[in-house]
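Dear colleagues,

As part of the handover before I leave the project, I'm documenting each prediction I ran so the next person doesn't have to rerun anything. This entry is a single chain, and its sequence is reproduced below.
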Amino acid sequence: MMRTLLAALLTLSTTGSGLGHDNLRRNIGSAKMLFCASGSEGGQPNSPIRGQDMEFAVAVFEINNPAGLSGQSISDFVLADDSGTKRPKRVDVVVFKKLPRRHESLGGYYLDPAGPALPWNGTLPKGTIRLHVSAAFGEQYPAKNSARCRVRVGPYLIVGPLNMRWATL
């Protein structure tokens, strides 16, 4: 009896206030990680050059926003695996509008935003936007293939697997 009354009150309070499940989904929006990769560039794995960026990561994600939001930023970018987490010292963000090309690999498609990349101005427009985030770490961080990529942009927390590691040059 008490459970039935409680369930009825919860149903009434969410539907009566306009906060039913569909309205919540519509008002919150959605975000998903499309691609995440990391790798090294320059230097040798056992003797990194201090003071230079040695490890990089790229994340591409899509946000479907129900209303425009300005003044947003990437407030957190993390690569994490069972050995710990690593935060970059520099992050660059551009709007990802690249069209897929026939016979292009997944890495080839997402790693290079191509064309004149538009710097992101901190606006999440109403509708869908794709962002390409490049991160630079101060030292090598050989993230394992089981690593996760986590990005916080405005009200959205986007998490996904590390899809690939590129080779050290």
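The longest strand covers residues 30-40. DSSP finds three helices and ten strands in the chain.

All the best with the project,
I.
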